[in-house]
Design goal:
By secondary structure, the chain is mainly beta. The chain has strands spanning about 5, 10-15, 20-25, 35-40, 45-50, 60, 70-75, 80-85, 90-100, 115, 120-125. The mean pLDDT is about 95.
């Protein structure tokens, strides 16, 4: 079983940047798919970005394209989410998750991911 621990959240002003990290422990296979999700108060958890553990394919929420970059350091078993040009609507708890089924999940909805981290708070002030 894969355990995930997120870090890097915080308070930032509108237009600022943050880099989130997700450290994985346990056996990780290159067929796994890693995702970042977020949940704002009173809203459902939504997909933000995903990447294959091999690093060969990425997916992004439309509003994240051009601002966020997901990447993997295989040696450190860590997934990153670089977030630039942050906006107040990016505020929420950010979660890292893994899909352990081979290949890209049929859907990037939360239900298709198997293990989750505890989350890290991101707050963007206007």
């Amino acid at each position: 079983q894969v355990q995930l621990v997120e870090s890097g959240g915080g308070l930032v002003q509108d237009g600022g940047s943050l880099r989130l990290s997700c450290a994985a422990s346990g056996r990780v296979f290159t067929s796994y798919y890693m995702g970042w999700f977020r949940q704002a108060p009173g809203k459902e958890r939504e997909f933000v970005a995903a990447v294959s553990w091999s690093g060969g394919r990425t997916d992004y929420l439309d509003s994240a394209k051009g601002r966020f970059t997901i990447s993997i350091d295989n040696a450190k078993k860590t997934v990153y989410l670089q977030m630039n040009s942050l906006q107040p609507e990016d505020t929420g708890v950010y979660y890292c998750a893994v899909s352990v089924r081979p290949g890209r999940p049929d859907s990037l909805k939360p239900a298709y991911f198997d293990s989750w981290g505890q989350g890290t708070q991101v707050t963007v002030s206007s």
